[in-house]
TrEMBL record:
Keywords: ATP-binding, DNA-binding, Helicase, Hydrolase, Isomerase, Nucleotide-binding. One of its GO terms (cellular component) is exodeoxyribonuclease V complex. The gene is recD2. This is ATP-dependent RecD2 DNA helicase. InterPro entries: AAA+_ATPase (IPR003593), Coronavir_polyprotein_1ab (IPR050534), Hlx-hairpin-Hlx_DNA-bd_motif (IPR003583), P-loop_NTPase (IPR027417), RecD2 (IPR006345), RecD2-like_HHH (IPR029493), RecD2_N_OB (IPR055446), RecD2_SH13 (IPR041451). Its EC number is 5.6.2.3. PANTHER family: DNA HELICASE B (PTHR43788:SF6), DNA2/NAM7 HELICASE FAMILY MEMBER (PTHR43788). HAMAP family: RecD2. CDD domains: DEXSc_RecD-like, SF1_C_RecD. Belongs to the RecD family. RecD2 subfamily. Residues 357-500 form the AAA+ ATPase domain. One of its GO terms (biological process) is DNA repair. Residues 118-137, 182-201 form the Helix-hairpin-helix DNA-binding motif class domain. DNA-dependent ATPase and ATP-dependent 5'-3' DNA helicase. Has no activity on blunt DNA or DNA with 3'-overhangs, requires at least 10 bases of 5'-ssDNA for helicase activity.
């Protein structure tokens, strides 16, 4: 083992899945650039590294330094200083000014910036404004470097240093020392395990309360990420003990204390009388936000049902019913049919009549069953009576589609509720929405927290129409809200089933219904079809085929750019997973050589990217897709164009972006694309499920190409073991949830 110090000149290769990195570096005493290989995900061009490792001769690439461990240090040589200053880390200094500064001050450069920054005025072209910029950025970098050192000392990846600094500022290190577990609560991307590594090094005991508490919190939020609104007590104790490697009795004691402290809420689920003797009551443990979201949703929906609307349509219908003695009297659908030039079938007409006298109702059905057509009729009925209608959907794309289909403006739920960080939603109980009816599309995507926020803003006299397809994947966030509302049986539900002639001509729609019923799709490839199946058994062959489809075949045949073709895959990892497909497709489709790096990914001009986290400050949300429209290597920033809005990202924020040449089917929920290419292979087996495949193929509007094997398709279609999500919403809506809540 030996130690060498180097300056990073170029990052030649990085594998984001395992961190393997190849660098070209300059090392004192070596004339040529030295190749360095190892796990070096978080380094930047210009970084000065002190590395420990050994030399090795690779048959193909020659002499290389194999890194075992490394740390980043401030450069000590003039050359290193120039590289560091010019790397873009220090705002206001690019390579040109870096050179001039170093030429003027030599090895004293850093000392000057540190103690006597005013002297920089002696450098040609540098004015007071630039000096201020450099000073602020230097301070920040210094602190970020300190945080990096602290993290390195504690054996933790330095990738989050900038984020920690943004959250805690100059207090960062003190905060981490005080209670490292706070990091997991406060900083997106840092989990219990990272915090635990730091805590262990700092000497926190395995049985300390903060550790046990954090582990329990983490277990609950993991369960929430899997879709559960609460944890069953035994499930929580078991999982948390496993994670914490602690005895169950410690976990139980901590849990009890947390419930006493109102850190968590416990509710005892009632056991129906006939089972009373056989079953112990189930204890549900909630993180408070989920508890209040579930309770709030249930109470508000029941309250809305109990309160009549006050609009003209309601008043006139009630009057007509009283006078005629006909309890079923509703709007005249034939008048609406004339208005919208459409003949509704019996179920659709019923849906319109039902909507006219419902306070809360659900309209559900598969693709092509007429949800949109019927919604237009419902809207026409409401408009005939002068009702003010609000339209909303959970994602930007779904809202856009709703606007196009109805001719009325539909907003995303976030915009409807006027989400303004950091205060949150401006529309709420005190400042409710104004209007007579709220119609919400793609409701299967709404989780319990969003539903509660939405309902808070709904005044009690407002009508609600929920539209959605319950066979799609459930919401990414916790809950099974639409299904629970339907299953509760407390609200009118209209289920559309018939597929109309136009829709019948689409093999995508017909196959979606077959697959939803568990049958194999019709995959005989022929002319004039929109559903193609290309048999490829090996993942490597499937990937080659996908690249050729996206790059040449489909654009050539359908005369559309590659950028409007979307690859959807069942999972992130593996050869035919999103990570690898993105690397391969980026290489095939984007000729740019350089870009900004983050965790092994390179973001280049022209790249198709997806925001993967709601960011209220930037007003970009999970699932939004855009294109990189500029990259500033000096300032280490880039801008992404999302539907004609330019959003800027600093390098440290790039973990909010994924490449989106390929995305997972989960991430594509609520979006539709003209052409979808979808690998379905046995290597995806752990993700293959009927509702996943169904959701994937229904994202395609014009053309769908599946690349894979019949065996994998059949396997997925048989798999209906949708893991049950823990929620008590249905019970609460049925009105028989026991409510002995504590906490
Ligand atoms: N009553 C009807 N008579 C004739 N055609 C109909 C009728 N209802 C719907 N259709 C036709 O069926 C097709 C599918 O309808 P629509 O787009 O409303 O379904 P959808 O459930 O909204 O579908 P998706 O979920 O795929 O968007 C459309 O071409 C529509 O014109």
């Amino acid at each position: 083992m030996m130690k060498i110090r180097c300056v990073v000149e170029r990052i030649t290769y990085q594998n984001p899945e395992n961190g393997y990195t190849v660098l070209k570096t300059r090392v004192k005493g070596y004339e040529d650039l030295v190749t360095v290989v190892g796990n070096l995900l978080e380094v930047n061009v210009g970084s000065v590294l002190l590395m420990e490792g050994s030399w090795k001769v690779d048959a193909k690439y020659g002499r290389q330094f194999n890194v075992i461990s490394w740390e980043e240090t401030l450069p000590a040589t003039v050359y290193g200083m120039e590289k560091y200053l010019g790397s873009g880390l220090i705002k206001g200094v690019g390579p040109k000014f870096a050179k001039r500064i170093v030429q003027r001050f030599g090895t004293d450069t850093f000392a000057v910036i540190e103690d006597n920054i005013g002297l920089l005025i002696e450098v040609p072209g540098i004015g007071n404004k630039r000096i201020e910029m450099i000073a602020a950025s230097w301070e920040r970098q210094k602190e970020v470097k300190n945080i990096m050192l602290f993290l390195q000392e504690h054996g933790v990846s330095t990738a989050f240093a900038a984020k920690i600094y943004r959250q805690y500022g100059n207090e960062s290190i003190n905060r981490m020392k005080e209670n490292p577990y706070k990091l997991a609560d406060d900083i997106w991307g840092i989990g219990f395990k990272t915090a635990d590594t730091i805590a262990e090094k700092l000497g926190f005991s395995k049985e300390s309360f903060v550790r046990l508490r954090s582990g329990i919190m983490y277990t609950l939020s993991e369960l929430a990420d899997e879709g559960h609104v609460y944890a069953r007590k035994e499930q929580l104790i078991f999982k948390a003990s496993e994670l914490l490697e602690a005895e169950e009795s410690f976990v139980v004691m901590t849990l009890d204390q947390m419930i006493k402290d109102e850190d968590l809420i416990r509710e005892v689920k009632a056991v129906p009388a006939e089972k009373e003797r056989k079953e112990l009551p189930e204890e549900a443990i909630y993180l408070p936000p989920f508890y209040f979201a579930e309770l709030g949703t249930a109470n508000k929906l029941l309250k809305l049902m109990a309160q009549p609307a006050e609009d003209r349509l309601w008043v006139q219908l009630m009057k007509a019913r009283r006078e005629s003695g006909n309890e079923n009297l509703s709007v005249d659908v034939s008048r609406i049919e004339q208005h919208v030039h459409m003949e509704y079938d019996e179920i659709q007409a019923n849906a319109i009549r039902q909507a006219a006298f419902s306070k809360v109702m659900v309209l559900t059905g598969g693709p092509g069953t007429g949800k949109t057509t019927t919604t237009k009729g419902i809207i026409a009925a409401f408009r005939m009576y002068g009702l003010k209608i609000l339209l909303a959907a959970p994602t930007g794309r779904a809202a856009k589609r709703m606007t196009e289909a109805t001719g009325l403006e539909a907003k995303t739920i976030h915009r409807l509720l006027e989400c303004k960080p950091p205060e949150g939603y401006q529309k709420n109980e005190e400042n409710p929405l104004e209007g007579d009816v709220l119609i919400v599309d793609e409701c299967s995507m709404i989780d319990i927290v969003l539903m509660n926020a939405l309902l808070k803003a709904v005044p009690t006299n407002m009508r609600l129409v929920f539209i959605g397809d319950i066979d799609q994947l459930p919401s990414v966030g916790a809950g099974n809200v639409l299904r629970d509302i339907i299953d509760a049986g407390s609200f009118p539900v209209v289920r559309l089933k018939r597929i109309f002639r136009q829709a019948k001509e689409s093999r995508i729609i017909m196959n979606a219904h077959r697959m939803n019923a568990g049958k194999m799709p019709d995959i005989s490839n022929g002319k004039n079809t929109d559903f193609f199946f290309l048999e490829r058994e090996q993942p490597e062959d499937a990937v080659l085929e996908i690249v050729s489809l996206v790059k040449n075949k489909l654009p050539g045949y359908y005369k559309i750019p590659s950028s409007s073709i979307q690859v959807l895959t069942p999972m992130q990892r593996g050869v035919a997973g999103a990570i690898n497909l993105n690397l391969v497709l980026q290489e095939a489709l984007n000729q740019e050589r350089d870009g900004l790096r983050r965790s092994g990914f390179v973001f280049k001009l022209g790249d198709k990217v997806m925001q993967v986290k709601n960011n209220y400050e930037k007003e970009v949300f999970n699932g939004d897709i855009g294109f990189v429209e500029s990259v500033d290597m000096q300032e280490r920033m880039l801008t992404v164009n999302f539907d004609n809005r330019s959003i800027t990202y600093e390098a440290s924020e790039l973990d909010e972006l994924f490449h989106a040449y390929a995305t997972t089917i989960h991430k594509a929920q609520g979006s539709e694309y003209p052409i979808v290419v979808m690998p379905v292979l046995m290597t995806h087996f752990c993700m293959l499920q009927r509702n996943l495949l169904y959701t994937g193929i229904t994202r395609a509007k014009k053309i769908l190409v599946i690349v894979g094997t019949k065996k994998a398709l059949a396997y997925g279609l048989r798999n209906v073991t949708v893991t049950k999500r823990n929620t008590l919403l249905r019970e609460r809506l049925e009105g028989n949830s026991n409510s002995s809540a504590e906490g």
